[in-house]
Write a structure and sequence with these properties.
The complex is a heterodimer of chains A (360) and B (330).
Chain A lengths: L1 H24 L12 H18 L12 H14 L1 H4 L8 H4 L8 H5 L4 H10 L19 H10 L4 H8 L13 H8 L19 H13 L5 H7 L4 H12 L15 H11 L12 H4 L18 H12 L9 H8 L4 H13 L7
Chain B lengths: L1 H19 L13 H34 L6 H34 L7 E7 L2 E7 L7 E4 L2 E4 L4 E7 L4 E4 L6 E4 L5 E5 L5 E6 L12 E7 L1 H12 L8 H12 L29 E2 L4 E2 L2 H14 L13 H12 L3
Helix pairs in contact in B: 2-3, 5-7, 6-7
Classes of the chains: A mainly alpha (360), B alpha+beta (330).
């Protein structure tokens, strides 16, 4: 027994010395040139597959991903953040991407044998030691699903279709700077969101509010992986320039959504927004967000004419305490905390029905 | 000797301290209202009776343990048990009960003039004067003004949780329930400033839910009510004007009304004449420009869990101008 313990002790000591030599003398070659031994590759890949299958959320949690607006938003974020490694569908990967270990798979291969729930887990959490990053924010699963929606379509998408989807619109002039094109690929050159109901309009927002919001995205105070990626390419000077450009876009006169069929909701939404005597515990939205008969601070966003799905999602995030923003964000937690789902829908319907052109 | 002196001094100061509680703006023993006087009399009657009983009981106890320490006859024993144990309490309690019941109808007597509706909120008081001429309510908050000599009807309700309305110098207390109206009446007998306090635990800042009660001569009260009914005064100077701009731009009107401006919110207190009140934050801070400034910048520290968000992120000059504007709303 004593002898067994002695031998074990000696073995442990030798192993510790060997490990120390590898770590401290740099004996292990970390070069990416040779790749992994086949057996190591098999272990790593099998571990990865099983870990994803174990942890992916259940299929019931997958939302409806058929909305083309979701696909378009996901594609545009993919093009900005993921394309550099996985390339477009059918497109050659860059030589640099191919020199990674492991090499990022071409996007059609990458998605080929996963279900949406697995893709969601991989996009949200990333894969350690593979180069696949985690989503830049921890909260807000809804922010990840547009990318998954795009990934469910990418296998059947031609490169030409992909490029048509992600191409930015023509900019009206040079004043916005070259990086405005990537804003415009989702928000439009005119700030109207290119008709995508998942994307907020920027025309009609104040310059100070847009700049403060970009800074909040960059710091993580406002949660969105999509916008945090976009804002992380900017600095305060860029914020001011881009805010100035979009604040100068004139709101279009026509409402973006069709009010018919929502009439009852709009009536309820209007009474809540204007300060309902029946809900004396709910602050009146119009004091900050319009439509305001008097002047209003440019530090608060106008909500008139914003797309209904976008408004509803943001209201839910406020109500559930999951959203931050500028220095005034704490006001919204108080304002939205007592609203029920029906009231949120009513408010979204009301503001979506307003003509953005009427807001001062 | 020195120890005895010290004990005497201690007893004397304890008495002085407890007597100090007998007067003041929030004391049942310093009545300034018809109902409070009746309650104070009831208190003194009960206290005197209790003192007499205490002396008798302890006298008897002293007698049997120190003065006559030997068995008593059965006759005396039964007389004490039946007389002092059954007959005496029955008679005494019956007398006190009929006295107590006799004063209740007066306590519940309705008002004969003005009606005020008070709603308990977390943690402040929504006050609405309902004029006899049938005009709309005059909305105010966190302060109650009453005419002396008149019996004012007080209608009580609550927004979300149970509160209790109590002005010790003026009358008894009454609970306030969400979705239900209770009532009482107050009849001040002298002018002055008193203090009301929520008397039912209602959440984190229950202790900071108080209000001044200002009792005025009738003609002064009428003049005050007529002024309270008016819209807010225009800002008196450039600082107040800027303060009003900040007030509207920062969206204060989502929760607060200042009549005569676009601010029409009803979540928090009506601020139309807030500068003329004695306190802000429901009896928490004096309504001075400094008080307003402190309140705006440190709301959550001053009143834990308060619904009003803090505005410490505003530029200091904005806060100063805002405080100037609010103080000017008299």
């Amino acid at each position: 027994m004593t002898r067994f313990l002695l031998h074990t002790g000696i073995l442990i000591a030798v192993a510790a010395v060997a490990a120390g030599l590898v770590v401290f003398l740099g004996l292990f070659n970390v070069s990416a040139r040779g790749g992994h031994l086949p057996s190591v590759s098999w272990v790593l890949h099998t571990t990865f597959r099983n870990a994803v299958e174990l942890r992916a959320p259940p299929a019931e949690t997958v939302p409806d991903l058929s909305d083309p607006d979701l696909v378009a938003l996901g594609a545009r974020h993919y093009d900005a953040a993921c394309h550099m490694c996985h390339a477009g569908p059918g497109e050659a990967r860059t030589a640099t991407a191919l020199s990674m270990v492991p090499a990022p798979p071409p996007i059609r291969d990458a998605v080929s044998d996963w279900e949406p729930r697995h893709l969601f887990w991989i996009v949200k959490h990333g894969v350690k030691m593979s180069g696949m990053p985690a989503w830049p924010t921890r909260s807000r699963d809804d922010d990840v699903w547009p990318v998954v929606a795009f990934l469910t379509r990418v296998a059947g998408m031609s490169l030409a279709e992909y490029e048509a989807l992600v191409a930015p619109p023509d900019m009206p002039d040079e004043t916005a700077g070259a990086d405005a094109a990537s804003c415009a690929s989702c928000h439009g050159a005119d700030g109207r969101g290119r008709g995508n109901a998942q994307v907020p309009r920027l025309d009609g927002l104040g310059e100070a509010y847009i700049a403060a919001t970009l800074a909040a995205y960059r710091s993580g105070a406002r949660q969105s992986g999509i916008m945090r990626h976009a804002a992380s390419t900017l600095d305060a000077t860029d914020d001011a320039r881009l805010a100035g450009f979009y604040a100068a876009r004139r709101p279009s006169p026509a409402p973006t959504s069709e009010p018919d069929g929502d009439r009852e909701r709009i009536v309820l939404g209007r009474s809540l927004a204007m300060g309902s005597p029946a809900r004396r515990d709910v602050p009146a939205c119009n004091a900050c967000h319009g439509p305001w008969p008097d002047r209003r601070s440019a530090l608060f966003p106008s909500l008139s004419g914003q797309p209904k799905p976008y408004l509803l999602r943001q209201l839910e995030l406020w109500r559930d305490g999951e959203r931050g923003g500028t220095a005034r964000a704490h006001l919204m937690h108080q304002a939205a905390r007592d609203l029920d789902d029906g009231e949120l829908r009513a408010l979204a319907a009301f503001y979506a029905s307003l003509d953005p052109g009427t807001d001062p | 000797m020195r120890v005895r002196l010290r004990i005497r001094a201690g007893v004397a100061s304890a008495c002085a301290l407890s007597l100090g509680g007998c007067t003041g703006v929030q004391s049942v023993l310093d009545p300034a209202g018809a109902d409070a006087e009746v309650l104070a009399t009831l208190f003194w009657v009960l206290l005197s009776g209790a003192v007499v009983l205490w002396l008798l009981l302890n006298g008897a106890f002293f007698y049997v343990t120190r003065m006559r320490v030997r068995p008593h006859s059965r006759k005396i024993g039964e007389a004490v048990i039946i007389g002092a144990g059954i007959a005496f309490p029955t008679v005494l309690l019956a007398i006190l009960l009929s006295y107590g019941l006799s004063i209740m109808p007066d306590q519940r007597a309705p008002g004969d003039g003005l009606t005020v509706r008070v709603t308990g909120e977390q943690w402040w008081w929504r006050v609405e004067y309902l004029p006899q001429d049938g005009g709309g309510p005059v909305v105010s908050a966190n302060e109650l003004r009453l005419p002396v000599g008149a019996r004012t009807e007080i209608k009580l309700t609550a927004a979300k949780v149970i509160h209790s309305f109590w002005v010790p110098n003026l009358g008894g207390k009454m609970d306030m329930f969400p979705g239900r109206e209770t009532r009482m009446a107050l009849e001040p007998t002298r002018t002055g400033v008193f203090r009301g306090q929520c008397a039912e635990f209602c959440g984190t800042s229950h202790a900071l839910m108080a209000f001044p009660v200002v009792v005025l001569p009738p003609e002064e009260f009428e003049a005050w009510l007529a002024k309270e009914r008016e819209d807010a005064a225009a800002p008196a100077d450039a600082a107040a004007e800027r303060g009003r701009e900040v007030f509207l731009a920062e969206g204060c009107g989502a929760c607060h009304a200042v009549r005569g401006t676009p601010a029409k919110g009803a979540v928090g207190p009506d601020l139309t004449h807030v500068g003329g009140r004695r306190t802000i934050g429901a009896g928490t801070l004096p309504a001075t420009a400094e008080g307003f400034g402190q309140w705006l910048a440190r709301t959550d520290h001053i009143k834990p869990d308060v619904r009003m968000p803090t505005y410490r992120a505003l530029p200091e000059q904005d806060l100063i101008d805002l405080a100037t504007y609010l103080k000017g709303l008299r």
